[in-house]
Design goal:
This is Nucleolar protein 56. InterPro entries: Nop56/Nop58, NOP58/56_N, Nop_C, Nop_dom, Nop_dom_sf, NOSIC. Helix 3 (59-70) crosses helix 8 and helix 11 (212-222) packs antiparallel against helix 14 (264-298). This protein has 501 residues and is mainly alpha-helical. Strand 4, helix 5 and strand 5 form a beta-alpha-beta unit. Helices cover 66% and strands 6% of the residues. The protein has a 5-stranded mixed beta sheet, sandwiched between helices.
Length: 501
């Protein structure tokens, strides 16, 4: 294997080109003595020599070049440095350039065909030595300059990679839906404890009121049942959706309740816990409203199609809206049913028809035999909606409305047989509703006309070809028949001649 001629060293302060004076061998490169010799400046300086050092003009240029390097691109600045410091050899031999990142190799080769990029173990050892002795090998650098530049570039590079957007940020959706599920579990647990605890004092209340949040509010208002009278009718009615009959029933049951009396200390603890349950329930309502607003902002079409909660669960399970938009429709269909899928594959049973999308109202409306069909169709539309939400600049729910209408039409088609709207017609309708999309509509109409024209031309060519083939077959049959007739006539003549003789 040919040795390394030059080394490209990227660092926060600029680019450095080193010339390799002595070539290392692969054999023995992993030996302890060889590895330790790299840490010795006197030994390492015999291996490499600084050819050129080109510093960056500022932090912005450093960040720009760092982004290019991470994506495997050669910036104009790096291109000019390589062009000036690694001249084309007079002989036909290739120049070997050692680089740290393999992705950068093809880009350099594209601009400089006479350079072969190498990123093997020897190159990495040499670059490690340059990194270790950087301050002494590079000129005009003070102690601590490299550390400060690394820290500044690291922070800037991290900020640029995060790509945070205030308007379209699905991280809050993922956290909100996870917290919503946790709150539902906690509220159910707390409500059960409040009912059990307060039930020793007023057991009949749990049978009259089923809603957990309403029960906690009533506990805070009623407190000791002995104090409840007809004067409290309006207060109780305001807590049970202004149902005066239900409020009167609560008051009547409190008068004849079988519950035991309770001390002030016990009642105070019950009320404290009921107050905490009530506050968590109120926060759950506010969180749900926040999630709805966030979903309509980040994924309006998906929210319109399948609902805010189910859409948020899909985004959370996929990891992000971008990941969801990259999923195939068949994957979206069974998202959330991975255990059932792998169990079915292992046991060679029937695979699941739906995952998280089962909670959609469309699956509930479908008949049992059509649930699998509508789930497949709905997953297809969810995949389209998520891609529109993720990649469109103008966020609106117009496409979601049209896609939802398509799913409803498909449900009606399964029940009545009425033909649903075609996809092309649905997209055209959405573009018309979107406004300012006349160019797209015209282009789609032109493409449709072009397709129709091409189809008609193909059909004409096919008809002509079939007619030609039929005519050829007919001519062959006629020729064959004529030949057979002529053969029979000749035979008849021969027989006549024989009979005369």
């Amino acid at each position: 294997m040919a040795g390394v001629d030059f080394l490209l060293f990227e660092q926060p302060t600029g680019y450095a080109i080193f010339k390799v004076k002595l070539q290392n061998d692969n054999i023995g490169s992993r030996l302890k003595d060889v590895q330790e010799s790299i840490n010795d400046l006197s030994n390492f300086s015999k291996l490499v020599e600084l050819q050129s050092f080109a510093p960056f003009k500022g932090a912005a240029q450093a960040l720009e070049n760092a982004n290019d390097i991470s994506e495997g691109l050669v910036s104009d600045y790096l291109k000019s440095i390589i062009e000036l410091n690694i001249p084309k050899s007079k002989s036909k031999d290739q120049i070997n350039l050692g680089i740290s990142d393999k992705q950068l190799g093809p880009s350099i080769k594209e601009f400089f065909p006479y350079i072969d990029c190498i990123s093997n173990e020897i190159v990495q050892d040499l670059l490690r030595g340059i990194r270790f002795h950087g301050e002494k090998l590079l000129k005009n650098l003070n102690e601590g300059d490299l550390e400060r530049a690394q820290l500044g570039l690291g922070h800037a590079y991290s900020r640029s990679k995060v790509k945070f957007s205030v308007q379209k940020n699905d991280n809050h959706i993922i956290q909100s839906i996870a917290l919503l599920d946790q709150l539902d579990k906690d509220i159910n647990t707390y409500s059960m404890r409040v009912k059990e605890w307060y039930g020793w004092h007023f057991p009949e209340l749990a049978k009259i009121v089923n809603d957990n949040h309403t029960y906690a509010k009533l506990v805070l208002n009623i407190k000791d049942k002995s104090n409840l009278s007809d004067d409290n009718l309006h207060e109780i009615a305001s807590l049970v959706n202004d149902d005066s009959n239900l409020a009167q029933k609560i008051i009547d049951m409190a008068k004849i309740s079988m519950g035991q009396d309770i001390s002030n200390d016990d009642m105070e603890n019950i009320l404290t816990f009921a107050k905490r349950t009530d506050s968590i329930s109120n926060y759950r309502i506010n969180l749900f409203n926040y999630l709805n607003d966030k979903m309509h902002l980040v994924a309006p079409n998906l929210s319109e199609l399948i609902g805010e909660v189910v859409g948020a669960r899909l985004i959370s399970h996929a990891g992000s809206l971008t990941n969801l938009s990259k999923q195939a429709a068949s994957t979206v269909q069974i998202l959330g049913a991975e255990k059932a899928l792998f169990r079915a594959l292992k046991t060679k049973g029937n695979t699941p028809k739906y995952g998280l999308i089962y909670h959609s109202s469309f699956i509930g409306k479908a008949s049992p035999k059509n649930k699998g069909r509508i789930s497949r169709y709905l997953a297809n539309k969810c995949s389209i909606a998520s891609r529109i939400d993720n990649f469109s600049d103008d966020a609106n729910n117009i496409f979601g409305k049209v896609l939802k209408q398509q799913v409803e039409d498909r449900l009606e088609f399964y029940n009545t047989g009425k033909s649903p709207m075609k996809n092309s017609d649905a997209i055209k309708e959405a573009l018309k509703l979107n406004g300012g999309a006349s160019d797209l509509i015209e282009s789609s109409n032109k493409e449709e006309k072009k397709d129709k024209k091409e189809k008609s031309e193909k059909k004409e060519k096919k008809d002509k070809k079939e007619k030609k083939e039929k005519k050829e077959k007919k001519d062959k049959k006629e020729k064959k028949r004529k030949a057979e007739d002529e053969g029979e006539e000749k035979k008849d003549k021969k027989k006549k001649k024989k009979s005369k003789d």
